[in-house]
Amino acid sequence: MQIQPFELERYFARHEFSARFLLGPSDCESLSMQELLALADPEARALWEGLGLGYTESQGHPLLREEIARAYPGLGAGHILTAAPEEAIFIAMNVLLRPGDRAVVLTPAYQSLHSLARAIGCRVDEWPLRPRSGRWALDLDRLADLLRTPARLVVVNFPNNPTGFLPTAGEWQDLLALVAASGAYLFSDEMYRLLEPRPELRLPPACTAYERAVSLAGLSKAFGLPGLRSGWLACREAPLLAEFQAYKDYITICASAPGEVLSLIALRAAESILQRNRGIVSANLAAARAFFSARPRLFDWLEPDAGSVAFPRWLGEPPLEQLAEQMVERHGVMFVPGGMFAFAGGYFRVGLGRRNLPQVLAALAAALG
Question: HSE of 222 in the Cβ direction (CA atoms, 13 Å)?
Fold first, then answer.
């Protein structure tokens, strides 16, 4: 397999820990160890204090998988495989796809959601979101056209990174019906789920709504705990999950013992953590909306529906890629251009999940003059 360089991750490697102001991070405000451990219930606290640093169960700690499974009605711990989120994508793509298969991928998207399929030797057809009336919009007629040709896999990501788009319940049902009629598998990246501004907007996990769906989720984005490297795959098909497990045996084999217990603590305190993070996103969304909408000659603000990111457009000069280099080199403000998502046209990602976004926007205002 010849994998293309991961443009976004190489770009972050250059600037993330040196730039003073990060405009486009996708995760929510991280918790400290002290903050997280303070949320532990007695059972989890005892597990933490008595933790041994031996090997862990390759499918994931039973208590952790039981806690994860609570989010998937009709599924149990046996339907869950834990893995670092990026590792989980790598596992799923390599198990689900073979050279010559065809994949239909919603774009813009995190690069591994499409580049791994290409590296495997698959044909990848993109299904793009488009701006419409100040928001991002889904074209279900286009998906229907794409699925007239047989596809092995359809890949979606809702709430979407980088646009913040979320389908309505009706659009979600129509999407599932199209995929089911085609017989394709559905890989659903749900890393930003639980950051909806209102509970009624939240979609059910794909794996609970379609028998050939695989859901990806984890603690990096909505929970603000990327340092745990904690994620999972959920699916109904036991043989498919066994294939995922067999593939994982050639990667990390098992998870970090401390990370599993800390993940259990986080999931048991989910509502407290998520309420905090949704509050940060809500305040930052208002600030970002006001900032970019007040500069209509420079920016086209596109309102996100959910999640911790937005994807507005730069209308000024110089071109966005040149502007991004100037901003980070001269002013310490790091942009994330749309080219990092193979989506040109002046779009860039704005992170809404960290508390310092108002300071970042102030720095951007000063740099723009």
Answer: 28
